[in-house]
Structure formats: C-alpha cells, structure tokens
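Hello,

Following up on my earlier ticket. Below are the two sequence lines again, exactly as submitted.
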Amino acid sequence: MNFGKQLKEGLITQNPVLVQVLGMCSTMAITTSIMNGLGMGVSVLIILTASNVVISAIRKIVPDKIRIAMFIVVIAGFVTCVDLLFQAFVPAIAESLGVFIPLIVVNCIILGRAESFSYKNGVGASFVDGICQGLGYTAVLLVMCFIRELLGAGTLAGFRIIPEQFPVGILTLPVGGFLVLGCLIAAMQWALSKSKEGK
Amino acid sequence: MSTKSKEKVQMDPAYIIKLTVTLFVTCVVVAAALGGVNAITEETIDRINWNKTVEAMKKVIPEAADFSDPLELSDTMTAAAASMGGTLDSVYEAQDANGEGIDCYALKVVTSGSQGKIEMMVGVDAEGTVTGVSIVKNSETSGIGSKVMTNMPTAAGIGVLSQFEGKSAADGTLTVGANVDAISGATVSTRGVTNGVNAALAVAGVLG
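Thanks for your patience. The regenerated structure is below:
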C-alpha cells in the first residue's frame, strides 16, 4: 500500500473529475456555492470509502456475473443511510443538496472505483483509494464552487465579496458550469502533458 | 461481437441458484441495515419537518399560536387549486393560545417554477385576504429565480412575496404584469409563485 502514490493519483494524475471525467452531472449541478460543494464532496468521500471497503471485503464471494448488481445494492444502501442521517442531524446541508444526495447512487465515480479498484484490491488499499479519490473529487468541486460562487454570485460561503451589480450571473447557470469545467479540464490536461514532456 | 455470441451461457442450475441466493442475501442484509438507520432517524426527521412546517406557517399567519393537524382535503378543494395551476398539498387551521380555531388557514400548495416544483405556504385570513406567502422548498436557479424565493424587492420597491399581502379574491385572478410585479429576469419563477397564491385563494374560497 502506497499512500503517497494513491493520494497523488486521486488528486492529480487520476483525478476522478478532471482526468477520468466521471461524475460530471453532480459536478455541474451543485457547484454553485462553497457550502454545497463541501457537503457534496464529503458525502461522496464517506460513501465512496465505505462502499470501497465493503466491496473489497466481499469481492471473493461475489460471483463475477452479478457483481454490478451487488455493487449497486451496497452503494444504494450506504447512500440511503447517509441521506437519512443528513436529514436527521444536518438538515441544512440535506436541504441545500436536495435530490443530489440520493443521486450519488448513480454517481459513476463510486461504481467506477468499485469496478476498477476495490474489486481487485485489498481492504486497506481500497480504503485509502476511497479517501484519495474522494479528496480529488472534493478538491475539484471546491475549485469550481470558488470560481462560480465568487464570479457568478459575488459571494463566498454566503458572504458578499463583490457588490451585487457586478457578478456574471451566467456562471451560476448550467452554461457556466460547462464553461468552468471545460477550462479546468483543459488546464489539467495541459499541465499533465507539460510534466510528461519534462520527464 | 463474434466472441460475445460464442460465449456459452451457463445453464447449470446450481450456479443460477448460487447467483440468486447471493444477491438475495445481500439485499436482505442491506435492507436490515437500512431499517435500523431508519428507526434511529425517523423520529428526528419527522420532528424537523413538522417544526419547519410550523415555522413556515407562523411566517404567513403571525398571530397564530399553534396549528391544527392537517385538514382532510375534499375533491372541491383540490379541484379549485388545480383550476388555478397549482396542486394543493395540505391545509392547516391556525389556532389561538387556547387551541381554538381562528378561521385563518395556512395552505401548502405546489406549483411549477422555472427549474422544478415550488412548495409554498400561503396564509389566508377569515376575510379571504392573503396574510403572507413563504417558500418551503424550491430548486430555482441560484442568483436568478432564487431572488423571488428570498423575497427580494421588485422594481416597485416591495418584496416580491410581500406584494401578495392584502390581495384577495376580489382582486380577480392575479397575473404577472397586470397586478403582480415580477423580478427582472425571473418572470417564470414569479409566475409560479403567483399561480400558487391564486390556487390558495381559490381553495380558501371553497373553505368559506
């Protein structure tokens, strides 16, 4: 198990959003305010880590033919638990994320990691993978939220930074999501190809 | 493609039973875990939801001390709401400190905004006049439609939700542009809220 390498993969070289291009829908939809991004990032991190561990633990007894069905049952179970717990104990976050919490079930990052990593690796490595990939996802969400909330709404975590008449409202719309995400992916690919050339 | 069609389908009954049993057991275990979590959280969630409802109702009927349990909805009430483009969710009667009904009603109606459904609470007093409007749940665009949801002032200087206070069935059907001011850029959201108020007034008309 190599924590440093996995962390680098999750955050940079195999970043779930910018390199694997997974989980686009939620990335686009909820990144309109920092608090949303943080709430979503943390819930995905928790669910991803938990489902990675469970799937890795049961990987030897899961028949190959029905593995996807089993993964989905496990993931859906964790998502529903987190959804209920959020509603009961942090209602503010549950309210602002709304339907996007239940929709984590179909977030392809989680199924993707189950299929490509935890189904083939041990419990410890899968646990670390869940945390690293979750951090990578959260980091991208926060960057997107920062740009979109600051320039689109003129606030950060609800506090007004830019006076109301200046912000570019379009950035908070889906169009703005596509634009910001496109620029981020391009920047990431550029940086990755640069560092490859350097070697 | 060719390799796929040549793949032999395994019809061994023992294997199929193994698949079924594995999947079934997983589902049972997950369902049991969910049942456990639900049992822990159900009460808290119900309480939070009821508190939220009461808070929303107090906002629209400030003089109320408490509220009745939801009234039974009649077909005429739901039809009245539907004719104005809204869906009636529930009706509560406001009570004074002694638990007596004061003939004011809080109506929860659902209408369509620009991004999905808007759940809103409308308070109507004994004379059929709107005492307040508040939004319970919405998914309007942050920074645009959300201005309507947070009662930002319109060009006329009055909060877009506050402008409904004092309106009654006597004003006729409320229409954006005629007797309701929209927030610039958020006409669809304003229209949704207006439909909700119209629906609530129609239901209040049925209640008498």
